[in-house]
Amino acid sequence: ERLIEQLQLQLLAYQMQDLVCTKCRLMKQDNFSMQCTGCAGKYKSTISADELRTQIGVYIDVAAINRLSMLQDMAKWAQDSTGPAPPASVAGASAGSSSKH
Predict the structure, then answer these.
(1) Are 11 and 78 in contact (CB under 8 A)?
(2) Could you give the CA distance from residue 85 to residue 93 in angstroms, rounded to a whole number?
(3) Separation CA 89–CA 71 (nearest Å)
(4) Alpha helices for 1-101 (secondary structure H)
């Protein structure tokens, strides 16, 4: 139960996180501005989607090793909800794909 609660709290923290300006590091104060009101910089999330996916992967591994089916189901649902993980390497993806006739 404790691991499930921790996973739920991490998911909630990701959804409720603040956005921070990449230039001046001020937190976003409203829900309408597209740029920082202090310096016109761009906003970014404090917790990246990749970081969240990594944490979810750890929960999946722990659940599988310890046969915690409820935790595993919840972590897999969270993984499916956050989308696919980014590709490890884009450079090798197009190798050998060109052919001439």
Answers:
(1) yes
(2) 15
(3) 30
(4) 2-15, 49-65, 69-82
Q: Residue type at 85?
A: A
pTM, entire model: 0.69
Each residue's pLDDT expressed in tens, for the chain with a length of 101 residues: 899 999 999 999 999 998 999 999 988 988 888 899 889 999 999 999 999 999 999 999 999 999 999 999 999 999 998 876 554 433 333 344 444 44
Residue with tokens 């090798």: 92
* 90: CB partners within 8 A, 6+ apart: none
Q: Extract the tokens encoding 90.
A: 């884009």
Per-residue tokens: 36: 């920082």
Nearest to 86 by CA among 43, 36, 42, 52: 52
